[in-house]
Amino acid sequence: MKFYSFLAGVLLACTTAVHAAEPAADGGRKILRVAFTTAETGFDPSQISDLYSRTVTPHIFEALYRYDHLARPVKIRPLTAAGMPEVSPDYKVWTVKLQPGIYYADDPAFKGRKRELVAQDYVYAFLRTADPANRSQLWSWIETFNIAGLADYRREVVAQKKRFDYDHPIQGLRALDRHTIRFTLSEPSPRFLENLAASDLLGGIAREVVEFYGDKIAEHPVGTGPFKLKQWRRSSLIVLERNPDFREMHYDAEPAADDTEGQAILARFKGRRIPMIDEVRISIIEEEQPRWLAFLNGQIDMLAGQYSAGPGSFINVAMPNGKVAPNLERRGIQAAQQVNSDIAITYFNMEDPVVGGYTPEKVALRRAISLSMDVEREIRVARKGQAIPAQSQVVPHTTGYDPKFKSESGDYDPARARALLDMYGYVDRDGDGWRELPDGKPLVLVYATQPTQISRQFDELWRKNLQAIGVRTTFQTGQWPEQLKLARAGKLQIWTLGSSASGRDGQSSFDRLHGPQAGGQNLARFNLPAFDALYDRMSVLPDGPERDDLFRQAKMLAVAYMPYKPTVHRISTDMWHPWVSGFRRPVFWSEWWHLVDVDPAMRVEAGIKLD
User: Architecture of 52-218 per CATH?
Assistant: First the structure.
């Protein structure tokens, strides 16, 4: 009761803020209310890379394949495809047939006609990532697919400074007929199916919509998925509504026979038409306290850990000893926890004159910084125990992840850090208590951060860690979307952020170190030919011992050069009110809002007033 007395003083302000964001009452409609901790950047799949936007877009756009919602271990199934792909023995030719009769949501761009999804729409989606004019954050990743002729044509466009021609034939990207698409790859790709299941990025898109909206396309996503965008107030509110043109699709899944939870969910929902809800309202609430209070007050139906950070600092109140608190349990609130297929990483800009470079003294500086970081304290103090230490770039639940792997990346040893700095000339020459660079110039690190309460906690830990080894640091504060833009442009020196796997192949974790992906997934701009050779080799090998050994070598190179300090794999704590049913956290993917149900009457019975 003391906790709720503490809450009472700020509850009214929180409630007022959420009401201002969403003034309309439910009116009996099934509305799911969730929160993001960070603002979205837009809804054009070819131009986004952040988790928050990528959580919205797969509910609007549909890829060829999807992950089964309940299957553990994960299983890929057709989404808009009519069946599994036809694959050549050398894994270079992948042919996919689409289901006929799938239609886009109605939009003015179609001028009153009903627009069917066709194979050319997927060709067009890939081409948009290759068009230099779009500056797609996806291109460095798409380039690794080795689609025959696509990268060559892009280079030709750049070299000749000409306009990208969307009608230019690409050998490896062809719509054979209205409902058949063929991908021809220049190198074998045994796991190409996982790329085709990236529904948050590679959904079909109609060319006439892009041409109709022009540079406003990020504000007008039009797809074939279960929802459509109803309202968007940047960095404040996103509202999706049921797509009335969505085809008849019914709940189905394939949980394992011994999966009690999965079988129970399937028994309850099998055969139900989806989506089961009418609307999703996403409020952007960056600070932990108002977000937690909004959940307690029923203004938010769920705190789904990955994008809403769960209870955050209130975890010990919400789930003492790993169980739902009795007072919350009496209200019917449920919770689930799991280690995410994600990682928090601190990256060093390898092109920065202070922390970048490949010479021994630069490597020593990064490794010393890594050794100074007290990750266990970070987990205990800032993360309230909701994480496990990371030993490499590879994330849990993916191939290549070994829970027994141990490396220097996971060490905390400030004495060794100070010795490394002394050895390579980072010493205090003027007696002011701070080290200088080997050439005698001041050593000052610039750490990028965000203006939130939780960020300030991390900043203080960072400052103390560096102070303990005699290194001065300053902070470059900005909103997360703006920091991401600067990071992509190579204008941040050091920044910490998270990354989530979009599929089961652990090689995606190494995208961050792949030289050709600099400025895309590779924020550190790490460029080491020896590493790239390993990456290219593991791309064409089937899973097995030889590929596993390449994973091990790649991990050790990452430790040796330390372009990133992997810190933790986060634990998600998802909490939801009893009027929400059917939730199960996805392992890799983002789309699940169409697979849960909401009972408005139960919400009313609980005394929740939303108008």
Answer: Alpha-Beta Complex (3.90)
